[in-house]
Design goal:
Helix content is about 45%, strand content about 15%. The chain has a 5-stranded mixed sheet, with helices on both faces. A 4-stranded antiparallel sheet has the order 6-9-11-7. It has a 3-stranded antiparallel sheet with strand order 10-8-12. The protein is globular and about 70 Å long.
Length: about 450
């Protein structure tokens, strides 16, 4: 078999066989096929697309390029969630303990942030001594002992995806639904959880900017998960504004703690309930979502979910004092108020632009080598549709460099649009995709 023939077949609109897909993935991973040939194939895929069978075969080939994580020694139906990335998305830190407190094993291998979207591991490392690198034995033991384990992915999971993504990134072939879905799902399916809920973000702060493309991505990923024999459900959720109020690592951890103590932002808590109820039903803990929501609210109101977060931190060698007294979390030297000079209603706030402001402050990474300032970030004081009076605080900027803070303060004034009240109320969840089809909400 020649790579030339594989490229030509896809260039001419043909359907690649499983054998051809396995051939190019295996040989590219092993260094036997040069970048320029794979770049040509990626461009052919970009223009001519892949069908469902090709996409599933590509995903399987990427999974088979490296290690898989066997979780069969963990008792019960194991659940996981994945977000396609957003601003202020600290969902795992609150949701995981909520689900675990209901008696369902929540097992997750997470990543770090790059660009304007934050990473769960970076946020957890705001907690002193919290260990994100666990051995397989520690991961399994924690899941069996306390129903929750969150750690970093091993380097040997889906090495083909890492190579292909790096090449896609420099050849303008990232924005293809099959390639995106295969990349995301290969990493999820290499880890042996039994059920997955996908949080597919849509809006200004998301990878998918419009609902149609977000639904297509959700459908593709659910098809892959289902084809792989995993229970998979996707929710398409709003990322036109940041989730909750806090954007930035230690600030988001504090907001997750507040949420587990019953004092979190309404949208963030509601998203945790929406995703969590799906997970409890998939884990057969509850027969329906109404019952599941009640169970989740009960573990929050009783303090059991908060206690589970303390257990998670303790089991992963972190200092629980940082949870019990969040004032110990990394704090910026300066906190500057951004006040409104007009009155009206918040019409919009571009989530990506807010995320980039946090990036300027040091809360994110420009490159993989960038050092993160765990204390930096933005805490919004108003959300879309809120009433604003002249002089009201719109946001608090947390930082350690006054020049950068002044730049961000100026930016936020232009990002947060104030005017007449919006005609339609904003939505948190736009739709659901499962193996039976798509339902708009």
């Amino acid at each position: 078999m020649r790579m030339y023939d594989v490229i030509k077949k896809k260039r001419d609109g043909g359907e690649l066989s499983m054998r051809e897909i396995n051939f190019f993935v295996e040989n590219y991973t092993n260094g036997n096929i040069p970048d320029y040939q794979v770049a040509s194939l990626l461009m052919a895929i970009y223009f001519n697309k892949m069908n469902k069978r090709e996409t599933l075969d590509l995903t399987k080939a990427m999974i088979n390029s490296g290690e898989t994580v066997d979780l069969s020694n963990i008792k019960g139906i194991k659940v996981d969630k994945h977000s396609t990335g957003g601003v202020g998305d600290k969902t795992t830190i609150a949701l995981g303990p909520m689900v675990a407190a209901c008696g369902v094993p929540f097992v997750k291998m997470s990543g770090r942030g790059l660009g304007h979207t934050g990473g769960t591991l970076d946020k957890l490392e705001s907690i002193k001594d919290f260990k994100v690198e666990l051995s397989r034995e520690e991961f399994v033991k924690n899941a069996n002992d306390i129903n929750i384990a969150i750690c970093s992915q091993t380097a040997n999971i889906t090495p083909a995806d890492k190579k292909l993504y790096s090449l896609r990134d420099v050849t303008a072939t990232v924005e293809n639904i099959s390639l995106i879905a295969g990349s995301i799902m290969s990493k999820k399916l290499a880890i042996g959880s039994d059920a997955i809920v996908l949080d597919v973000k849509v809006g200004s702060g998301a990878f998918m900017k419009d609902l149609d493309h977000a639904l297509l991505l959700a459908e593709e990923m659910v098809d892959i998960g289902t084809g792989f024999g995993r229970e998979t459900v996707a929710l398409v959720t709003n990322m036109d504004e940041p989730l909750g109020y806090a954007v930035g690592n230690s600030l988001e951890v504090k907001e997750a703690i507040d949420t587990l103590q019953g004092n979190g932002p309404k949208d963030f808590y509601e998203l945790c309930l929406a995703i969590g109820s799906k997970l409890l039903v998939l884990a057969k803990k509850c027969s329906n979502e109404v019952e599941a929501r009640e169970m989740l609210m009960k573990v929050v109101n009783s303090g059991k979910a908060y206690a589970k977060l303390l257990e998670l931190v303790r089991y992963q060698y972190g200092d629980t004092n940082y949870i019990e007294n969040p004032q110990l979390l990394p704090k910026a030297n300066y906190v500057v108020e951004v006040k409104s000079d007009v009155y009206g209603y918040i019409k919009s706030m571009n989530a990506e632009s807010i995320g980039k402001c946090a990036l300027i402050l040091g809360a994110g990474r420009e490159t993989k080598e960038s050092q993160i300032d765990l204390s930096a970030g933005i805490v919004l004081n108003k959300k879309v549709d809120d009433r604003v009076e002249k002089g009201d605080v719109l946001a608090y900027v947390h930082g350690n460099d006054m020049k950068k803070i002044e730049e961000v303060e100026k930016n936020i004034r232009s990002i947060i649009q104030i005017g007449e009240k919006n005609d339609e109320n904003k939505k948190l969840v736009y739709g659901e995709v499962n193996k039976d089809g798509t339902k708009l909400l």
